[in-house]
Amino acid sequence: MSAPRRWLVLSVRDRSGTAHVSELLPEALRRLGGRGAAEDEEGGFVAYLPDLEEVESFVEEARREMESFTGTSSLDLSWRWQEHEEWEETWRRGFQPRRVTERLVVSPSWVDPKPGPGELVITLDPGVAFGTGEHPTTRGSLRLLDRVVEPGTRWADVGAGSGILAIALARLGASHVLAVEPDPLACTAAAENLSTNGVEAVVELLHAQATPDLLDRVGPFDGIASNIECGVILSLLGAYRRALAPEGELVVSGILHHEVEGFLQEARRLGLHLTDEDREEEWWSGHLRIQD
Ligand SMILES: C[S@@+](CC[C@H](N)C(=O)[O-])C[C@H]1O[C@@H](n2cnc3c(N)ncnc32)[C@H](O)[C@@H]1O
Question: What domains appear along the chain, each with residue ranges and CATH number?
Fold first, then answer.
C-alpha cells in the first residue's frame, strides 16, 4: 500500500487552558489515527491523518470523541490539507539525533551520528510510522529494555510501528526478534528501517494483528516488548504470559498513570510481577517477570 496523496492536518486547542486536558490532547489525536502528534506554536496540538472522504462529518465525530476522552467541551478544532511530500519534509526538519540512554542513540538516516565507544545507534527514517524516539512511551520502553536484554535471547516486539524497539533489541544482543505490526504503512517503514540498520537477519517482520491465537503459535520468547495502548495490552496479557519462557521478561508501555493500578492487578493475577518501572509525562512503562 502506498502513502496517501495528501494528509488531513487536524489541529486542536483547549479554550479553557486546563493543564490536564492539554496533556491528553496528543493521545486523543493518536486515538483518532493521527500520526506525528505534536504541539504547535499557539499552544495547541496538531496531527496528520491519511486522506479521507466526508471531512466535515469526520471532524465533528473527532470533536465528540476527543471531548469524551478529555472530559471537556471546550475544544476548538480546525483542519487543512497538506500534500504528502511537504509533510515528510516538515517532519524531517524537526527530527534530530537523540540520546535515550547512555548506550542507545536514535538518529535520522540523513545524519551521520559518529557513534562513540560502546554507543548503539538506531537509524530511523520517520516516514509515517509511530516510533521515532520522540514519544515518552518509546523512550520508556528503550530505557527499560537497555537494562533487561541479555545477549543471545529471543524476543517479540508486539506493535512494532517503525521497528524502533525491534532494532534496539537486535543492537542490545537479542539473537532473534519477531516484530508484529498490523498497519501496512508502518510495516513498509519498518522493513526499510530494518534494512537501513542491517538487522534483517535478526529481526523477522510479521505483518499481522497480534491475537491470543497468533501468540500461542509463535512463542516461546525470553522476552516480549509491547508498546500499545493499555486496553490492547490487557486483551493480550494472558497470551503474553503463555508465550514467555519460564524466566521470561515482559516490557510494556502505552499505559497512562491512572491505568497502572488496574493493569498491575491483572498482571499479578496472571503471575507477572513488577520489577522495574519508568515514568515520563503522563506515561508509565513497566518491566515484569514471571513469578508463580
Ligand atoms: C504506540 S505504537 C508503538 C510503536 C513502537 N513499538 C514504539 O515503541 O515506538 C503501537 C503500534 O501497535 C500497533 N498495534 C495496535 N494493535 C496491535 C495488535 N493487536 N497487534 C500488533 N500491533 C498492534 C499499531 O499499529 C502501532 O504501530
Answer: 6-91 (3.30.70.270), 95-290 (3.40.50.150)
